[in-house]
Specification:
By secondary structure, the protein is of the alpha+beta class. The mean pLDDT is 93. It contains five helices and eight strands. It is globular. A hairpin with an 8-residue loop joins strand 2 and strand 3.
Length: 180
Amino acid sequence: MPDSSVARIAGLLRDRNALDGEIASVIGRPMTSGHLGEWLAHKIFAVELAPVATAAAIDGRFISGPLAGRTVNVKWYLKREGLLDVADSVALDYYLVLTGPASPALTSRGGTRPWCIASVYLFDARQLLAQLRTRGVKIGVASSVRREQWTAAEIFPKATNPLLVVEPDQAALLGLFAPA
């Protein structure tokens, strides 16, 4: 007799695969937080995405506003745990980071990672890289970014970073993804 919890998970995954397929048909790429985050950056922040998703360090360029022409790496973390995947690239100008709720980087046991956007951050890539090196932080996957750096980079819902102002229509679109 099969375990009913395994059968339940199989059914839920079939449902999820169907939803992921619907999302993929809209965004034109597989449903992952990376691809969906890039698509949202394109739609909300006028980021022209690179033609291929495998370009090193750069996901696209801002096509309008004060950052027009500047390169950007887009991240969507379902929780803000103080970590950021950082590339050592002279061609990269900014990180645009969409995050879910702030959460300490502890055990994931019993937790969830809801698909939501609680905050958006814009980091100057060269400045961040220099600050991390000064602190002796390992550059790469899961680099530790201090809370005050996150605060200084915030563009939504608080406008701490003046480099990119979130307009009311952009804020309304981001608000559609607010945590429950």
